[in-house]
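Our consortium's second objective concerns turning raw sequence data into structural hypotheses that experimental partners can test. To show how far this objective has progressed, the report includes one record in full. It was chosen at random from the queue rather than selected for favorable results. The single chain below, 240 residues long, was entered without modification.
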Amino acid sequence: MVENCNKFHLQVSGEYCSDMAAKYGITLKQFTTWNTGVGDSCEFMWGDAYFCVGVIGFTPTPTPTKATTTAKPTTTTTKPGNGITTPLPTQPGMVSNCNKFHLQQPGEYCSDMAAKYSITLKQFTTWNTGVGDNCQSMWGDAYFCVGIVGFTPTPTPTKPTTTAKPTSTKPGNGVATPTPIQSGMVANCKTFYFVKKDQTCASVLSSAKVTLANLFKWNPAVKSDCSGLWAETWACVAVL
């Protein structure tokens, strides 16, 4: 954290760098510059910690006003030419051939929405260009495109359904490994975290106090953007 910080924010569960930056009217670049430990893409952010959101002499730019309603859409618009009604509010930059929409929920990040609809993070950011390449500009409480005309999502791989207590031991380290787990978990894991049903990637990182970079390193099946994380499985969150 920079030495000339004069405003601080305590991260809460489900909150990401972009959320904190938006809350205080600063850019993601400013946030990562003032909090270098989080990494350029926020991949090393800690949960339950204070972060710098203002420095001496800095005046934040007022955040553009956007729709704040979270109620079921009562007003819709029709995209010219495709006859599909689009719910409001939406973030600017949505493609015109969208035919499936999702209302962002508190603590939900781009990768969570992408995973829910079996699409890639790249597809999500392409269909919703306003969020930015790394989802750094995503609005909360808005509708996002999660499907377009002519697109068929790839079926989500079947995962184990058992949630049995630990029954096996990783060779050589003497640490009992619970099941089920995703393939590719490192052999030297010492601490495991059970991913609950409907839990977001951000909440897993916060609850387990692990960075996305390490979660991916120790559980490669979750993918670098967390889109491959399975619910009701055990993930490695610390190693020997």
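The partners drew two points from this record. The CA atoms of residues 154 and 214 lie 27 Å apart. The domain at 78-150 is CATH 3.10.350.10 (Membrane-bound Lytic Murein Transglycosylase D; Chain A). Both points have been shared with the crystallography group to help prioritize constructs.
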